[in-house]
Amino acid sequence: MELSDRKQKILQAIIDEYIGTAEPVGSRAISKRNELGLSSATIRNEMADLEDMGYLVKPHTSAGRIPSDSGYRFYVNSLMQRYQMSVEAVEELKNALAERVSQLDVLIKRASIVASTLTDYTTVVTSPALNRSTIQKLDLVNLGNGMLMLIIVTRSGLIKNRVLAVDISEEDTSRLQSVFNERLAGRVADEITLEMIKEIEDFAETELKIPTKNVIAILNFLYEAIDDLDETEVYINNAKSILQYPEFSDVKKAREMMDFLENKENLVKLIGGSKDEITDGVGIKIGAENDFEALENSSLVTVDYRFGKRVLGKIGVIGPKRMNYAKVIASLDCISSHIDNILKQLYDTEGEG
Amino acid sequence: MELSDRKQKILQAIIDEYIGTAEPVGSRAISKRNELGLSSATIRNEMADLEDMGYLVKPHTSAGRIPSDSGYRFYVNSLMQRYQMSVEAVEELKNALAERVSQLDVLIKRASIVASTLTDYTTVVTSPALNRSTIQKLDLVNLGNGMLMLIIVTRSGLIKNRVLAVDISEEDTSRLQSVFNERLAGRVADEITLEMIKEIEDFAETELKIPTKNVIAILNFLYEAIDDLDETEVYINNAKSILQYPEFSDVKKAREMMDFLENKENLVKLIGGSKDEITDGVGIKIGAENDFEALENSSLVTVDYRFGKRVLGKIGVIGPKRMNYAKVIASLDCISSHIDNILKQLYDTEGEG
DNA sequence: GTTAGCACTCAATAAAGAAGAGTGCTAACA
DNA sequence: TGTTAGCACTCTTCTTTATTGAGTGCTAAC
Q1: How far is CA A310 from CA A128, A129, A343, A347, in A?
Q2: Which CA-bearing residue is nearest the C1' of D23?
Q3: For testing the chain A interface, which of B122, B135, B149 should be mutated: the one with the most A CBs within 10 Å?
Q4: Residue A39 has what pLDDT?
Q5: Does residue A333 share a domain with residue A252?
Q6: What is the pLDDT of residue B129?
Q7: Would residue A84 be called left, alpha or beta, if left means φ above 0 and alpha means ψ between -120 and 50 degrees?
Q8: Which residues of B touch A137 (CB under 8 A)?
Q9: Chain B residues touching A259 at Cβ < 8 A
């Protein structure tokens, strides 16, 4: 059944009001806004209809109405006004993002901070899993003191590095590096098998005559590092922001939420599974639409960020269901497109891999 | 005035009880413990004395007593029983700390996690400021794609790395690296001046004929990196744990605490200023002894961690004043000494610099 | 179709009373 | 003289009972 124009206006007014106050809104409050020129009694009738249709809910008989999940859904899909970010805000955002950025993971951490500052909600970002990335180059750097750094550079310019304690000569280091690159560079991380590693191991021992003990240590290390590339990393920001919303004025609820947010697997599942797009790259999940009990009263807005055409990861904002969707969407959208720009500038090539 | 043996026992009993329950403890509760064989009336008299002496406080007339800051102080200094960690706990701790550790900052982040898991309180660790460290080696690694990684290794084996977007040839990279090492290796970070950097800049331009634009970018970057070495980094862990203690059942208080914990400067000041040692490296600050209003009802226990003889940083536990001091101290102590061991193993040299 | 009016509901607030934990003091006891 | 039983007193906490007020739903009139 279609919603009459008037019903839509009333629903919108109610949700707008509720987003601002977090209090059930009554017929009189809407009537007094004087946008519709209707008496509270009329509004009341319409509200009763909207309730029957499932868009509104009453906490109890003598309270006003609050939006149901479907109410929010309708609002988000059809009613919501576009939020226009101020020129200054965009400028500030741009600067905050671009400042001294050299690596993708720095950039997306920054993006997460910017998003949470802008919206005052908790943000979650996932860094790209690199298992489908092409390895461009492997560097082995002998740091002295028996420390060896391994650096993996992917074609899209992502860099991972880690350090191993092992004693190896400068010469062996560079020979090993050459072998690594000969055999692994240009390959997709996923297709590198334990066997290939074993082959390198044999080669290094028999041909290069590097001591077995070291070879084993280093190649284990290499394998682990490559294996780790398919770990999606998750950063969370401003979790404490939930404490400021009346939805979490009960410490117990706040704790549950924090516990949920702490669990990386939850977050990966949550953000990864978010597909309910409304416009390019922006997805919204309202309340129970997220398949987690802990988020019953929260909503999640996500946006993809890309490098060229390839989706690298997502930025998500988690807040109460009555969040300012328009603003959140606008902010994320803006951040996402700026990430795109910055990455293009940084690597000035359209990247795939 | 000296506390009689009996008063001490009573004080201890009260504090032990309060630590467990967070409720004001009455004379009858102590009497019933039957450790002292005294009636509640007698205890009552003693408690009145203890209150006069400032060790106890009454929330109101008809409530039991709770320890004052001085009460806790006396407890911590003289009364508290040593906590003996179980062999398994120590073993577990050891494993958790040592697992795949190659770098100091990984280790201390790990230590922070272990400490908060063990104690269920919030932990804060400071990573060493390296401004007094000797730079052992500088590595420049050309990552391709117009990316350059700078790695700084200190004599104590600490590693910092960062990436800059700049186009430079392999050859120039290695020549630049040589210059860096010739001129800067062996120096203490603090004594590297802008002028020295400028000299390198000139040399690189005129002698090595590296394009001005690149030289400027790279040397700015180098200077920033060295400058950054004196930034103490702070990691915080398990902040949400405060939500489980009745002391923070009021969301407003929890929020204040979180706000405080979020501010890095606060933490550096807090942890850095902690000097009130009770035993080697362990410091305790109770309530108002911390010069921060936000910590009025919290205590801080810190422990140094060292590399050889040099103190690198601190690990701190923040919890309610009625925290389990004995356990916290034992845990931190244990962690600290294991860090020492691991570092020795890792770098197997007594480090200074 | 709209609206004024009114009875009704129910949470939230306030006020009053009861219960209970704990104290401080006094007087008796060993 | 130190210890303890006993009791009046205090003050919080819990429970109960009213009171208020926001908001609804329905009816009847415009």
Answers
A1: 10, 12, 12, 14
A2: A62
A3: B149
A4: 92
A5: yes
A6: 79
A7: beta
A8: 143-144
A9: 240
Of A10-24, A92-106, A140-154, the range with the lowest mean pLDDT is: A92-106
User: Which residues in chain A are closer than 8 Å to B163, comparing Cβ atoms?
Assistant: 102-103, 159
Residue B231 neighbours by CB under 8 Å, 6+ apart: B129
d(CA A332, CA A330): 6
pTM score, two decimals?
Answer: 0.89
DSSP reduced 3-state for B291: coil
Q: Which nucleotide has its C1' atom closest to residue B38's CA?
A: D3
pLDDT tens digits for B221-254? Answer: 999 999 888 788 899 999 999 999 999 988 999 9
Structure tokens at B70: 């001085």
Quote the distance between the C-alpha of residue A125 and its chain's center.
Answer: 3
Q: How many domains does chain B have?
A: 3
Contact B165 A249 (CB under 8 A): no
- Nearest-CA residue of chain A relative to B347? A145
Name A125's Cβ contacts closer than 8 Å, sequence gap at least 6.
A108, A109, A111, A112, A234, A235, A237, A313, A314, A315, A316
Domain range holding A203?
135-228
Is residue B247 one of the residues assigned to a domain?
A: yes
Using the structure, give the distance in angstroms from the CA atom of A32 to the C1' atom of D28, rounded to a whole number: 24
Q: Say which CATH number the domain at A193 has.
A: 3.30.390
The stretches in chain B having pLDDT less than 50 are 350-353
